[in-house]
Each structure stands twice: as C-alpha cells, then as structure tokens.
Amino acid sequence: MNPTYLKISEAISKVPSTGRVFVQGAAATPSLLLQELIQQSDRFKNLELMHLHTMGDALYTRPQYKAHFNVTNFFVGANMRQFLDYDRIDYMPCFLSEIPTVLRKGPRKPDVALIHVSPPDRHGFCTLGTSVDVTRAAIDTAPLIIAQVNPQMPRVHGDGVIHVSEIDVLVEANEKLPESKLPELNAAEEQIGKNIASLIDDGATLQMGIGSIPNAVLKFLTHHKDLGMHTEMWSDGALELIEKGVINNRKKRVHPHKNVSTFLYGTQKLYDFINDNPAVIQLDVAYVNNPAVIARNPKVTAINSAVEVDLTGQVCADSIGSHIISGVGGQIDFILGASLSEKGKPIIAMTSRTRQGVSRLVTTLKSGAGVVTTRAHIHYVVTEYGIADLFGHTINERAKALINIAHPDDRQRLEKEWHSYKKLT
User: Which one of the listed residues 36, 48, 189, 232 is annotated catalytic?
Assistant: First the structure.
C-alpha cells in the first residue's frame, strides 16, 4: 500500500468555503496546514475553526481575516487571549470530558479535521502522536480528514492509532515539534511543592498538569514509592520520576503499569521517550477524564491551580473577572474523580499572591469571575503558607482556615473584610 500525498495547496483546496473545521492542538498543532489556510483565506467565508489551545501565532485571529474565519475555543490559549471578543473569537465552556460528545453528537460536528500524525508503519497505521484528547472524536466524525504527516511526530500507543486508509488527504511535513522547558521555580513555588508532597501517600495515582507548581510537587516526590499516573497531560517533570522508578504504576487498578494521559507537551527528550513506548498510552479524553474511571484508581491525588479562591471555597480558574484566560478544562473532572477515589485527595494549589502582589485569597471573587470548582466540591487548598482542609467544614471555619494560609500581610485585611461580609449576610 502506497498512500498518495498531495501538495499542501491542493490539500487545503479541498476544504469547503464555509462550515466547521476542527484543528488538533498543543504540540500536535498542524502549523503547515494552518499556514496554507491563511494563504487561501480569500475563498473562505465565516469558516469556523474549533480547537483546544494551539501553538503558534494563530494569524486567523487577526482583523484582516474577519470575514473569512471565526474561532470557537474549547480552551483559550496564550495566543488567543488578547483577541477573545465573544463574537468572532469566542469560547465554549464545557468540561473537557464532555467535549467529545459535543463533537460526536452535539451542535458542533466538524466538516473537516486538520490533524498532525506520525508516518504510517509497515501495516499502514499512523498515530495522533502527542495529542489524542478530543481529536479522536473529531476524526471519528469529520467526513474529510486532512493530515500533516511528520517523521518527527512520535508514534504513541492507545486511542490515537488511525489507519492511513481512513485519512482522506495526506501532506508531507518534516518539522520539529514545539517544546516547553521546565520552568525555574521561585521560593514560594518550591514551598507549595513541599506542602503538597506531604499530602501524597505512597501508592497514590497522580493527576498533574504543566507549569511551575506541578513541577515543584514532582521535585519533592523522589523518595515516594509506587506512584501511578492517570492524568489529563504530563511533561518532563513526571518523566524524571518515571526514569527513577518512583512512578511505576504498580498500584493502579485502571491500566496498571501504564502511564495514562490524553496529551503531552514537553522537550524533545520527552518526545523521544514516548516514541513507540508501550508503557505510555494516550486515550480519548472522554475516558481519561471520566470521574467514574478516575475514581477506580486508589488514592487519586488531583493537583489543580486557581486564579483566585474566595473565603467560602469557590474556585475561579478560567478567568480574571469576566475575561477568560484559559478554560474549564479537566479540573472538575479530576476534583470529582479524586473525591470519589478510595483515600483520594483533590487539591487546589496556588501562590498566596500574584506576581503583582495581589492576594489570590479573596473575600468575594471579582465581578464576572467564573466558578470552576464549587464550594461543595472543594477539599484541600494549598499555598506556600500551608494547607487548608475545607471538606466537612462550615463557611466560617473555611474562612478562618483560608485566611491562615494567605500572605501574612493580607491576613488582617481579610479578617476585617470577612467580619463585614458576615454582617451583610
């Protein structure tokens, strides 16, 4: 079997002038296909591009393409934030675990899927590489699949396997994947890592993301034993623990001995490690993030971040006031899954203050702020000043516990505000 490859201009010429186009995201963003989409922009009218966060400049957001492209973000990445206008560039709030249903059965079935795959093996099978997430649902649904085939895309086991005969159009590419280096940690982040590490038991199943705080936690787990990984995504911080045998997945009940995720983003070292590695599987996010599946594993410790938390335990994680900066993502999927897990621990972690010195612990959330994790779902909140366990505690008890882990210079003000808040209610 010798699949036929088209020139990229010919491939994109097959995209209809209007309709819905799904775009694979993160490290698997099909950048060459998107560049050609821009080149042919004049023939498109209100073409809707749908995706999670993508890498690159996302030129289709620019004003000169207003008549040609609309964007539906399932998660707002850094390249989208300044262009979000809730009109042409919009956001669809949804639990990450439910987005595949939106694509398969809901109001946003794609007409085209633009994807980025590893080359076909001797049996003709490609893989979705670093990002299966909601892409599996898109390729199961879209009547036209256009793939950028890249020898530098790692071959990853799991739900991302797709036979070349299921791909309608193939385009040759050879480009390095975008990389994310481990960030430098400051003293506050390191202390948060120590605090969270103290909550993690041997044999726990971890869910963590990417960024300073998850990496700070992983740094302080080197002496733990028999940890497992069932997570939305992971990166180089977890790789170090895998190589040391700290993460070995022996105690997991769901896919024991396998590192389970739905997408990956990191350095070339990570991409080399996952390439054709049977210990690494990427699965459909509708399954990975299903709270019932998550809960089957023991001691699930879910570590998520926040923009701000009010003194009753409400968590804003997707916006600054009314301005969306990310998305609902999988936070509540894993908060709920960890809550239902035997000896599970759902954790919200954040520095006590922003880089501008503003307290993240607040009496009331900013006007327009969205609540991602409700006060009924909250368990642990961690800052560099300690751990507040809010589960089973009253509103007043929670406020006192959260004030105790606020920045010392903010505590007196928060106490006064809380006293006034109680009088108002």
Answer: 232
DSSP string, 342-373: TT-EEEEE--SB-TTS-BSEESSPPTT---SB
Residue pair 229/260 in contact (Cβ under 8 Å)? The answer is yes
Q: Are 43 and 18 in contact (CB under 8 A)?
A: no
pLDDT one-digit tens code per residue, 251-289: 999 999 999 999 999 999 999 999 999 999 999 999 999
Is the domain of 216 the same as that of 142?
no
**Entry pTM:** 0.95
- Backbone φ, ψ for residue 26 (5° rounding): 55, -140
Residue pLDDT, tens place only, 160-175: 999 999 999 999 999 9
Structural domain that includes position 160: 8-172
Tell me the three state secondary structure of residue 316: strand
Mark which of 119, 145, 172 sits at the end of a domain: 172
Catalytic site residue 232? Answer: yes
Q: Which residues contact 403 (CB under 8 A, 6 or more apart)?
A: 311, 361, 411, 414, 415, 418
